[in-house]
Amino acid sequence: MESEIKEGYLYAFSNTCMPGILKVGMTERTPEERLRDANRSDTWRPPTPYKLECAIKVNNPLKKENILHRILEKYVPRINPEREFFKITIEEIRLFFSLFDSEIYVIKNEDEGEIEEVKDVKNKKSRDMKKYFKDGQNIRHNIDGSSWIGEYDSHKNIISYNGKQYKTPTNFAQDHYKEEKPGKTNVNGWKECECEIEGRWISISSLSELEY
Predict the structure, then answer these.
(1) CA separation for the pair 5, 59 (Å, rounded)
(2) Closest by alpha carbon to 139, among 203, 66, 69?
(3) Among residues 144, 158, 139, which one has the least CA distance to residue 202?
(4) Domain range list for the chain
(5) Which of 77, 162, 171, 208 is the residue whose CA sits 20 to 30 A from 139?
(6) Which residues contact 132 (CB under 8 A, 6 or more apart)?
(7) Which pTM was predicted?
(8) Is pLDDT above 70 for 4?
């Protein structure tokens, strides 16, 4: 008798201790629950907490994970054949996820060890872009292969793109969703956007304040 089709998620975790490497796995619970387990584990937990970068909802998650791992091994280095760590960028794993006809999981703001994107948890104040970005720095937002790349203007403290000006990364991301996925809610640009540093794209959620 054919086993019942189960729903679950494919996810990608990053960690500041492992730049350029993502943990790509599956869970039959929510990605946030899996993230909490990863950050509680004493067997393979790094010194800094994992961060949930992206996830998709799929049927037969174990089968889809096996397929995804076999595909990834053809294109990017696998750190250990027995582990789920791959040398791959966030942008690249999102493209691989898009190969599956699946629902994109909306990441919530309850992850352990994470900074709430729009508000500074400690000070309860909006994050100031000029404390994180340099003049002329490129800011990028991706949606299923569609990329908007804006430019930060430190004099006006805005992100400019296609003739428009945005006061926050979230405003920038929201406008992108209006074109690509109208009706999308719960947008948080501080978690979704990236900035270009020395030719590499880095998640802005992991940035520290600039030192002058």
Answers:
(1) 6
(2) 203
(3) 139
(4) 7-104, 129-206
(5) 77
(6) 195, 204, 207, 208, 209, 210
(7) 0.51
(8) no
